[in-house]
Amino acid sequence: MEFIRRLRVPPIDDTLDAALHQKIDQKTKPLGALGQLERLAFQVARIQGSMTPTLKNPYILVFAGDHGVAKSGVSAYPQDVTWQMVHNFLQGGAAINVFARQHNISMRVIDAGVNHEFEDHPQLVKGKIGPGTANFLEQPAMSEELCEKALRLGAAQVDAIAEEGCNVLGFGEMGIGNTSSASMLMSYLLDVPLEHCVGRGTGLSDEQFEHKVKLLQQAAEKYPNLKSPIDILQTFAGFEIVAMVGGILRAAQNRMLVLIDGFIATAAYLAAYKLAPAIGEYAIFCHRSMEQGHQHMLEALKADPILKMDLRLGEGTGCALAYPLLQSSLNFFNEMASFADAGVSEKS
Ligand SMILES: O=C(O)c1ccc[n+]([C@@H]2O[C@H](COP(=O)([O-])O)[C@@H](O)[C@H]2O)c1
Ligand SMILES: Cc1cc2nc[nH]c2cc1C
């Protein structure tokens, strides 16, 4: 696939590493006392190759898409909620709008494949690849051609905000049924049994959850030999998930800081990581979702999420909530006095 063949994620230059560690260790605090904030500041400074890293023009991109599998009763909510929530995002009334406003984060909503025609709106990107995916219980979710189109859609949106001076962006999503997609991706990409990957999504009852597990097990039996990340995406992903994969890859290629939200965004990250492991240096995992499966996925990725708030919403809410902590990490790095500046005695 042309998009994948052209992929070049720049490796991180480690020439500043010793100076960065020294700068952190000379701040007026016991060694290591700012914990994860120190690791975050170090990571961002390395990505930017700078002793004075900054967050510029932050964005949250919310990718939306519908899923054929939603018709098989795998979600607690009807498929129409996808377009209704897109409408809500554009009206400014969803959780992500509230948190993004609170932290001055810009937002854009990308219709990657919602089964609805939207009016024009300044915050909406009309990128519909199709009116939802095919039901993967019956046939692969999308063709290779549409998969590549969705990758390019996500990459183009990231390029557009990079041109606006953005160097940090969060990936969020909306799509009824997409925890089913994400569970399938996780199981195939990590080669772990489905039981570890399937959860209650929007809030299934015990009975509904059993039904979801049974259907997803049937899907796994239907496709025993999928190996490549692109084949796995084509078979099970949604257009919003594939667009996130393209966006994550392009963001790393552009040396932007990649903020990953919950279970579905992490599944997209996992596919991107399998395609280009060098993106690992650019990613920050914002929170650990309540969706069972996310914990296993984060462990497999050796990720250290910033927040544990029992969220299971998506939309990029974890990214918006973690953002001020990321900002604090750079503020301490750039503004805090050193032992020498402040005349404080160092460790004896
Ligand atoms: O981000 C998460 O960890 C998360 C966990 C559970 C559900 N969601 C959201 O809920 C929707 C998918 O849930 P479901 O039950 O319809 O598969 C989709 O719109 C996601 O944004 C999101
Ligand atoms: C109401 C609602 C809002 C959401 N936001 C992200 N996923 C969602 C799923 C539902 C059901």
Topology:
Layout: H1 2-5, H2 17-25, H3 35-48, E1 59-65, H4 80-91, H5 95-102, E2 106-113, E3 124-126, H6 144-163, E4 168-174, H7 178-190, H8 206-222, H9 229-236, H10 239-253, E5 257-260, H11 263-275, E6 283-285, H12 294-300, H13 317-335, H14 339-342
Parallel strand pairs: 1-2, 1-4, 2-3, 4-5, 5-6
Helix pairs in contact: 2-3, 3-13, 6-10, 7-9, 7-11, 10-11
The structure holds nicotinate mononucleotide (NCN) and 5,6-dimethylbenzimidazole.
Offer a concise description of the structure.
The protein has a single domain, classed as Rossmann fold. Helices cover 47% and strands 9% of the residues. It has 14 helices and six strands.
Structural account:
- The chain has 348 residues and is of the alpha/beta class.
- It has a single domain (59-325), classed as Nicotinate-nucleotide-dimethylbenzimidazole phosphoribosyltransferase (CobT), large domain (Rossmann fold, 3-Layer(aba) Sandwich), CATH 3.40.50.10210.
- The protein has helices at residues 2-5, 17-25, 35-48, 80-91, 95-102, 144-163, 178-190, 206-222, 229-236, 239-253, 263-275, 294-300, 317-335, 339-342, and strands at 59-65, 106-113, 124-126, 168-174, 257-260, 283-285.
- A 6-stranded parallel sheet has the order 3-2-1-4-5-6, sandwiched between helices.
- Strand 5, helix 11 and strand 6 form a beta-alpha-beta unit.
CATH class: Alpha Beta
CATH superfamily: Nicotinate-nucleotide-dimethylbenzimidazole phosphoribosyltransferase (CobT), large domain
Largest sheet: 6 strands, parallel
CATH topology type? Rossmann fold
Number of domains: 1
Distance, first to last CA: 59 Å
Strand composition percent = 5-15%
Give the overall pLDDT as a whole number: 98
Number of helices: 14
**What would you say the CATH architecture is?**
3-Layer(aba) Sandwich
Q: Total strand count, please?
A: 6
Characterize the overall form.
globular
The ligands found in this model are: nicotinate mononucleotide, 5,6-dimethylbenzimidazole
Order of helices and strands: HHHEHHEEHEHHHHEHEHHH
Share of residues in helices: 40-55%
Q: SS-based structural class?
A: alpha/beta
Determine Rg (CA atoms, Å). Answer: 20 Å
EC number: 2.4.2.21
Keywords: Cobalamin biosynthesis, Glycosyltransferase, Transferase
Catalytic activity: 5,6-dimethylbenzimidazole + nicotinate beta-D-ribonucleotide = alpha-ribazole 5'-phosphate + nicotinate + H(+)
Pfam families: DBI_PRT
